[in-house]
Structures are given as C-alpha cells and as structure tokens.
Amino acid sequence: MSATSVGATARPVSEPSFFEFVTLIAFMMALGSMSIDNLLPAFGPIQADYALPSANEVQLILTVYMIGFAVMQLFYGPISDIVGRRPTLMIGLVIFSIGSAIALFAHSFEMLLVARLIQGMGSAATRILSVTIVRDRYEGREMARVMSITMMIFIIVPVFAPAIGSFFLLFGTWHTIFVSMLVLAVILAVWFGRRMPETLRPEYRMPFSVKRIADGARRCVTERATFGYATAMALMFGALMGYLGSTQQIFETEVYGLGAIFPVVFGSIAAVMGVASFVNSKLVRRFGMRRLSHIGVVGFAAVAALMVVVALVFNGKPPLLLFAVILAGCQFLFSLTMPNFNTMAMEPLGDIAGTASSVIGFYTTIVGALVGMLISQSFDGTVTPLALGFLVTGAVALAVVFWTEKGKLFSPHHADPLPGIALH
C-alpha cells in the first residue's frame, strides 16, 4: 500500500527529518496567521474602497474569518479520524483557495466578508491537523517541546506579514494580498502531499459514528484538565485577538500615528513572542509544562495590571516606548502559556486526537474570537480598552487554571511525565 493512500500504514523511506517535520507543521499553522496579519495594513484601503463609515467596521474581516475558522474545526478532526490526516488537509486547502479566489472579485464589502468566512472555514483544517499530527507522533513534555518550536516558527513567519502586506500595497491593491494567500495554499498542498506520510495509526482509525463523535466530545468536556486548560487557552487567545483587532488603529493611525513604521513595531512585538516560544522549548523538558505555563499566566495578569495603571495615568495614551515594552512583556508571558495549555488539554485524549483537537479548537477559537471582538470593538481612541481586556482575560484564565489544578499551582504531576520519545 502506498504512503499516499488514505489507509497507508507504512512510511516512505524519505520521510521528513525532525527539522522538516517541525517546519512543515509550522507552515500549516502560519497559513491561518498570515491570512490575518498580512491584511492589517490593508484595512485603510479596504475601508476607502467600500466607503465604510468606521474603521471598527473593517475589523469584521477578522471576526467572520474566525467564526468560519471556529465552526469548521468541529468537522475536520472527526473526518481525519475516519479518512486520515492527509486527505482532510487537502479538503481544507481547496476550501481556503476558493475563498481566496472569491475575495479577488468581491464587488461589495458583504461579498468580501463571505470570502473571508470561506477562507476561515478552509484554514481551520491547518490548525486542527497540525495539532493532531503532532499528537499522533509525540506526547507529554516532548509534545510540548515540539509545539513550542513549531510556535516559534509560526510566530516568526507572521512577524514579517504586515511588512509583506505593505509591500504588496506599494505595487498593487489589497487584492494582491489575496493572490499571495492563494499561492501559499498551493505551496503547502504540494509540500505536504509530497513529504508528509499518513500519521493516523491504524488502530485509531474509526468508522463514522455520530455516537462515537458525541462520546469524544463529551470526554473533552468532562475531562477536568482538558476542559480547564482549553478554557484558559480560549481566554488568552481572546486577548491576542483583541490586540490584533485594534493594533492597526493603535499603532498606525489613531493613537500613535506611526503610518509606514507600523509593521516594524508590530513585528518587533511579535518577535518577542517567538523568543518566548524558543525559551519554552528549551525549558519545558526540565521544568515541565505546568510550572512554565503557571508562571506565564500569573505573570501575564500582573503585567496586564501594570498596563492598566499606565494607561490610566497617561489618559489612555502612554509614551510609545513604555507601552510597547509592557505589551511585549505580556506577549512574552502569553507565549509561555499557549503551547503548554494546548498540550495539557490534549494529553488525556491521544486515542481520539482528531476529534479532541476539533472540539478543543472550536471551543477555544469561538470563545477567543468573541472575547477578542468585545475588546477590539471597545476601542475608543486610547489603549485603555486593550489594557483592561488583557487584565480581565488574564485574571479569569488564572482563576480557571487554579480551579483545574485544585489550587495547586507550579507543581508537576503524574500526567506531566518526561517520556522523551516520539510515537513512531
């Protein structure tokens, strides 16, 4: 049976090295992020082209994308448990490409929103399959290490996304950015199709069953660690979405008026997140997921409180350097939580990795998108709503983690072993 067949159990001789595996998984994850970040400099031209009355209205481009992204995550995981990881990803990339093509010919803002919805529906496959494939091959702290390295690459790539978007705007319209998304989807399809073997283990392949899917979803909700860390992850993701939704107005136009320098500031802050992911990948095998993520969420809430104080002292417009340093601190601590929260949420559910990834992905994305929309839509020409949003999400996430661990923070436990092995 060939490696490209749905039911393949043997791996090709030239299967990807560890470096190529991690890079390919990171590329899968980065496609969705690139589809958000490289559009940020185009908010102004899109608002002008469609004569939108408010810059806040343009933020719907992010919201509808995340809604489609969230909803379709419910389907890709169970499908991949039935037919395999490879064909499921290809289905998602086709849907994403259709959305990208529609955006090129969108004659109204409403049609553009439909295109973004379809794009989100397609890119959900990259998020679900990337986590699922990593869980297929790794577990415990080793999985957290792989996810951290993946997140580092995943973050570094979009660091340049706003600058790339700005570059396209110099030589064309915002439509050119959607052309680049289409090209990236084709590159990913070819690379994945040629190099990634089927990772679904034969004994985990399941026939279609509504009851089985429902039982898997029920396990996600009733497993304390899964539900607790997924909820904390959703809240932290909401903070990130609130930042992404309002960052263009904060840095480029209304608060600091940086104009063309905006991608540099955005990229610098994103680079700090990449550094944090690298640090996490080096420390997680020694100190464990719980210690690092608990330090991250406690620190995030504390630094967010400082951001609120600074925002209030300066009437919502603190000096750029001061605000950027505090924001970068929050993002550094944020990056210590997300890969570890994700790993701990997935850890008890390796036998239903696809379904679990779908349910967790849907839940965290829809909650995160809604929380992020509340934060970004509260933008009032100052940084105060963002600071308050960070503080509330960080504090509630900390409370949820406290509940999940039954009041015992910073301690490794029996579910946090150091297997140090790949599940080949």
Key structural traits:
disordered N terminus, mainly alpha
Spell out the helices and strands N to C.
Answer: HHHHHHHHHHHHHHHH
Provide mean pLDDT, rounded.
86
User: Count of DSSP helices?
Assistant: 16
CATH homology superfamily name: MFS general substrate transporter like domains
Indicate the overall shape: globular
- Percent in strands: under 5%
What would CATH call the architecture? Up-down Bundle
Largest sheet: none
Q: Which residues form runs of ≥5 with pLDDT under 50?
A: 1-13, 414-424
Summarize the entry for a quick read.
With 424 residues, the protein is mainly α. It has helices at residues 18-37, 43-49, 55-58, 60-83, 85-104, 109-137, 140-159, 161-171, 175-195, 210-222, 224-253, 262-287, 289-313, 320-346, 353-377, 384-404.
Give your account of this protein's structure.
With 424 residues, the chain is an all-alpha fold. It has helices at 18-37, 43-49, 55-58, 60-83, 85-104, 109-137, 140-159, 161-171, 175-195, 210-222, 224-253, 262-287, 289-313, 320-346, 353-377, 384-404. The protein contains 16 helices and no strands. Helix 4 packs antiparallel against helix 15 (353-377), helix 7 packs antiparallel against helix 14 and helix 11 packs antiparallel against helix 16 (384-404). The longest helix is centred in the middle third of the chain and has 30 residues, at 224-253. It is globular and about 55 Å long.
